[in-house]
Amino acid sequence: MFEKLDTYTLQEYWWLIVALLGGLLLFLTFVQGGQSKLGMAKNEEQKDLLINALGRKWELTFTTLVLFGGALFAAFPLFYAVSFGGAYALWMAILFSFIIQAVAFEYRKKPNNFLGQKTYELFLLINGTIGIFLIGVAIGTLFSGAAFRIDDMKQMEWLGSMRGLEALANPFNLLFGLMLVFLARLNADFYFIYILGDADLVQKARKSLKVDFAIFLVLFLAVAGWILNMQGVGYNAKGFYWVEHKYLKNFLAMPTLLALFIAGVVMVLAAVYGALFKNARRVFWLNSLGVVLVGLSLLLILGLNHTAFYPSTADVASSLTIENSSGSRITLITMSYVSLMVPFVIAYIAYVWRLMDSKPLSEDEVEHDPMSY
Amino acid sequence: MTVDTSLVDWSRAQFALTAIYHFLFVPLTLGLSFIVAIMETIYVTTGDEKWKEVTLFWMKLFGINFAIGLATGIIMEFEFGTNWANYSWFVGDIFGAPLAIEGIMAFFLESTFFAVMFFGWNRVSKKFHLLATWLVAIGSNLSALWILVANGWMQHPVGMQFNPETARSEMVNFWDVIFNPNAFNKFLHTISAGYITAAIFVVAISAWFLLKNEKMRDFARRSILVAASFGLITSSYNILTGDNSAFTVVHNQPVKLAAMEGLYNGKQGADIVAFGILNPRKRVGDKEEDFIFAISIPKALSILGYHKLDAYIPGLNDLVFGNENRGIESAASKIAKGKKALAALKAYKEAKKSGNEQKAKAALAEFRQYEKYMGYGFLDKPEEIVPNVPIVFYSFHLMVGLGIWFFILMAVMLYKTMTGSLAQSRAWLKLAFYSLPLGFLANELGWIVAEVGRQPWAVQDLLPVKMATTHISTISVMITFWMFAFIFTLLLIAEVRIMATQVKLKAGGGKNV
């Protein structure tokens, strides 16, 4: 089946998968957003409830991040080598924030936990704010580029002396990171409204949603406007070249993606309306789908239509595209067969969520669960 | 060619540190997941609430360990890119498929059903919960399968061809990569080692319960019954897979085997050293004695390696300096051919750039002639192919010794549990308890044998470690090394204290804590 596709189509297919994983990752950041909102709890019982609501989902964010990295390694290994090696300090900082998250849920309340409950809550806060901000900065570099060169033997040279921390000096990247923090918080508001059986916390989540949405909206408009106005790197048989309004042109050249983007935005807006004015609980899913679609369409315009998805600001000819950074044809075909399992994976995840989230989570359940965090 | 050796050493140290910590937690996860699943199966089939109590306790310890295993695991994946950028590009095309399968098949299975396993007791049916527990166990073990397939390929690269256009190894046969005998044996040996570690963990803590609190007798007996049965079966199997692993090493990594046995001069009908002390002054090519003291099993190495009494096993001197009589090529000759391969590759690239197709064709033909020696071209001297012999030798022998001890321990504990005499056998209970760290130690030793034993190669014969690193400043790696060392140590202390507290609370109360 996949053997019949040409190599470029296979590369597009894998960019689609990477983009989809990126979109899913954005939706799953509700866990991190929730970690930054533990202050909502007025007492220990409410805090435990919030932690347990998030703790039942944290592995999926973690796993999706790992798979997002793994898919990039698998399908676009040159990007993996260039970005992770070049932005060393940035990625290490992200990893540290995820190491401390992984243990925080499980260890926080265990007797004799050595570092104390507050430390683990601080770990969750760091991961939920700084960690997610840095991921945003890293994603921002896909638009703004980085200073690297690659020679004929694929030896990489990075011109920045800060090993990726220079990305923090780029206003676009900072704005992108900040937007992601507030997107995560917005997602968390929806999740808390959806999952919690505590009327007080749900009420607080609704209030918080107003503020988070207002800030996110401003940041999102600024980022979206910037992206549509910024230049990107295009390429053809003759080589690479900078193109004004490249991403806007990509949207216009691929109207389906523009439609997905607009549909995603409308869904998020509808979810906000539903949560605030209709007291709807399940709009979490509407917002989630909207976030996935917006993330998917933004990542797709980044790599499709002969666009370099990782521009080199030092040497435009070294920019990475889905063509020059991908795995070989045989590998892409093999992995494409593996990808046929994805619908089954999504189906069982959906089934398990449905079973586990069939009724709201209450303080009473958390208190009497021998396995609760 | 100049290589910053301090950068290489720090990068190696950082990866070793991460892997050592990761490998403390993963084997326990692999084994404990199955032990818990077996316990829960007994609970569901018998309906006996005491089995639920047993299941819940060990499941809680499983969860505590699982979290930190995951935390250290994410570092491993991303370190390939951050610290080993050249390696990432070189092997990315091969690792792509196994990692994609691992991510899609195993990670999501594990993480999705983990939530049901821990929080689904009152939300899903008993049978669905049991299914979730088994799926977590299967998912954890599948993760190990795919990552070990990738590792096995590094030890024995098959199903690939180097592409001079892209300057990397590219997959030509997926099934060769997957069914690489080295990878398969590595997987079976590693997971069975993990199962034993978990079995010892459960047996050791249960033995402590028996020593401390008479009321814990029933709980401990049930735990030991499952764990010791599981441990006995898996330790027998581990001995078998160990034998197979050695067999593949003989054929694919003869230098590693020679280092494992401290064998400098090849022998027909070679012995295995059952116990020995290496001569610390001994170096390849000198006249020093190999051992200060050694007790050997005659011809056992030949039997292990070739299943023949009189098979010839090459020693380090043969492999470094060559042995014409045995048809063994010297490392110096391989290095010379490797340099020819690299020169031809460079000439090919230059000819392509200048558009001289004829010259490019000739250069490519020459490259293909010497391609399999390419990695040797990066080496400076023949002795570089020899790993650290004492580390490999002692790690290997200690690991084997521990493997035998585990088999005996499991057999005795199971026998005494079944005959009802365990509670009275305080000496054995103490021995079992003090064996707790040995399972972890054996795993680390096995990893050291596998990974230190293949030095200087990142990918056997193709890519030396020193050419695989990311070109970054040594200070960057040093900083992150100490940061990892600090945070992992901190978290390890936290885990040990939390686990110990859970065990003590259990011993004190007899109920789930």
Please tell me about this protein's structure.
The complex is a heterodimer of chains A (373) and B (513). Chain A is globular and about 65 Å long. In chain A, strand 3 and strand 4 form a beta hairpin. A two-stranded antiparallel ribbon of chain A has the order 1-2. A two-stranded antiparallel ribbon of chain A has the order 3-4. Chain A is 69% helix and 4% strand. The mean pLDDT of chain A is 93. By secondary structure, chain A is mainly α. Chain A contains 15 helices and four strands. In chain B, helix 6 packs across helix 14. The model of chain B has no long low-confidence stretch (mean pLDDT 92). Chain B is mainly α. A two-stranded antiparallel ribbon of chain B has the order 1-2. Chain B has a two-stranded antiparallel sheet with strand order 3-6. The radius of gyration of chain B is 25 Å and the shape is globular. Chain B contains 16 helices and eight strands. Chains A and B meet through helix 4, helix 5, helix 6, strand 2 and helix 13 of A and helix 2, helix 3, strand 2 and helix 16 of B.
